[in-house]
Design a protein that fits this description.
The structure holds two protein chains of two kinds. By secondary structure, chain A is an alpha+beta fold. Chain A is built from three helices and eight strands. The longest helix of chain B has 27 residues. Classes of the chains: A alpha+beta, B alpha+beta. Strand 5 of chain A pairs antiparallel with strand 5 of chain B.
């Protein structure tokens, strides 16, 4: 569904906080969304090491998960987060872009389920993983 | 037995606020979001003044879910750090000037964080308080509540686990 991808793309680009973070959309289709969070000074949580704050990564993952839900063929265009759990495996390497891939793997009548993985340049060792439940607005 | 006279209130306040503000000023993401902390004795309330850039859904409009998550996570980390620093602040063994000079105490690291979104965040100021359910030597468990207009009507709550920084003094090497 070409339309849905275009709508989701537009939607994300109109989100002020996504813009403030510098979050960009790499791909959104069929329940899978890929977004990039480039390293920048203002999202740093540990000034000594220059690593990104967990909260900024949460925001990127939340946005990406929501977009994955919206892009799912069985889901309508709007959603809101019910809950989101993030596991932080390691600090992202300073200066590297964090790429999040979110997959909406089930859309029920009322709830959509999503999981996401975030990596930096070391693709073998994810930085963080997320699981979430989202509303399905009908 | 003569007891040491209590310290003047101004000195105590200066040390407590000095340690808190120095810690906050050192974290770029806290400044970026504009999170502030109100302190009453050892109790902290995080305040997130509303700003247009914090919007996630411009049509409703509502605060971004990621902003809510970040706000609650910042509240948890700062409160946890604050609780673990408190005794050293009181005894004066923490040198506020050192923190101001950029020698920040090492912050707890998030292991996992789960946000429960109860209602949409309105475009106005938000508040949060964290309760440290357990602070062990290595792991800590923290619960956070966030609200806007009414203290009893939470817009989000969160639960997280944290890895505590080791208490050894950082080597200068």
């Amino acid at each position: 569904m070409v339309d849905k991808t275009a709508v989701a793309q537009q939607f994300i680009e109109a989100v002020p906080y996504a813009h403030a973070l510098g979050l960009t959309v790499d791909d959104i289709r069929g329940g899978v969304a890929i977004m990039s969070l480039p390293w920048s000074e203002h999202i740093v949580g540990d000034p000594e090491k220059g690593t990104v704050h967990g909260g900024a990564l949460s925001a990127a993952m939340d946005t990406c998960c929501g977009a994955a839900v919206m892009s799912h063929p069985a889901s309508p265009a709007l959603t809101a987060t019910i809950d989101l759990r993030i596991d932080y495996m390691r600090a992202a390497t300073t200066g590297q872009t964090i790429v999040t891939t979110a997959t909406c793997y089930h859309v029920g009548r009322n709830v959509a389920f999503v999981r996401a993985v975030a990596t930096d340049d070391d693709l073998e060792n994810p930085v963080a993983m997320a699981t979430g439940a989202f509303t399905v607005e009908r | 037995m003569a007891r040491k006279p209590p310290e003047p209130v101004q000195i105590i306040k200066e040390r407590r606020d000095g340690a808190l503000h120095a810690m906050l000023a050192g974290i770029p993401y806290v400044r970026f979001m504009g999170v502030q902390f109100d302190r009453r004795g050892d109790e902290l309330t995080a305040v997130l003044p509303f700003d247009e850039k914090l919007i996630g859904n411009p049509w409703i409009p509502a605060i971004h879910g990621g902003v809510t998550a970040s706000f609650l996570e910042i509240t948890a980390i700062i409160t946890l750090s604050w609780v673990s620093m408190w005794e050293d602040i009181e005894s004066g063994s923490i040198d506020v000037q050192q923190i101001r000079d950029g020698n920040l105490p090492r912050l707890p690291r998030t292991i996992d964080f789960t946000v429960d979104y109860l209602r949409s965040g309105l475009p106005r100021d938000a508040y949060a308080r964290a309760k440290v359910s357990r602070a062990g030597r290595r792991y800590a468990s923290v619960h956070v509540e966030g609200w806007q207009d009414n203290r009893d009507r939470l817009f989000a709550q969160a639960m997280g686990h944290f890895l505590m920084p080791s208490r050894e003094v950082k080597s200068s090497a």
